[in-house]
Amino acid sequence: MSETIETRQVRDALRMAQSVLDSLETGPIGQLVGESGTGKTRAGKYLVEHLGAVRVCCAQGISNKVLAAKIHAAFGGESAPGSANTLIGRLESLVAGRLLVVDEANHLRWQQLELLRYLADEAGMGLILVGTDLMDRPFKDGRTATFLAQLASRIGAKRVRFEPLSALEEVAGYMLQPHFGKVDKATAAAFHKQAKGYWRDAAELAAACRRVLAAQNLERLSPVVVEAASNWMAPARLAA
């Protein structure tokens, strides 16, 4: 399931990102928030494809300099030595009017968040922060909330929450039909019971279903195939 499917949440993310680009002078920052596996990263990549955005992904403990260097390279800047401040200075001319998607933003500390806010405010860069609810911790911590007050005000209501799919119609239409064709309600229910509406689990389960279909020389997905596929998957996932 590598192709991004235009769910309601993805469409909401696209509209929100467009509003960010339309407000570069006043509040060019938005957020995609939700649990792991709910499709936030897929939506971020969708913005790259449809809005010409640039994407970077953060890791635990990333420094200001490494973040600035990743952004500089992502925007096509030539590799050159320099401090974080030097790289930020170079970035100002590269990012104006562009949209940056920062995935795994829950790994960022307030210093990196302020660096991004500076580029949005002073260089006219649109910014989408993507991450889990842990991303909100620095905004609520009394020790750092004051430093992030400007960033919080720029985000405002430009926030889209990603949740696991719950309706069987959505599971059948978004997670199953594009890959297996039309399925009956019982099959959709069996698939939903295992994947629980999470895109990551759905991708793993769909791959396992395809293996079962191929091994048994079957053409149609059924509850029995879904159950057999779930038994092939990692016990840790099934116990989650």
UniProtKB/TrEMBL annotation:
Gene3D superfamilies: P-loop containing nucleotide triphosphate hydrolases
Domain of life: Bacteria
Domain ORC1/DEAH AAA+ ATPase: 27-132
Pfam families to which the protein is assigned, alphabetical: AAA_22
Protein name: AAA family ATPase
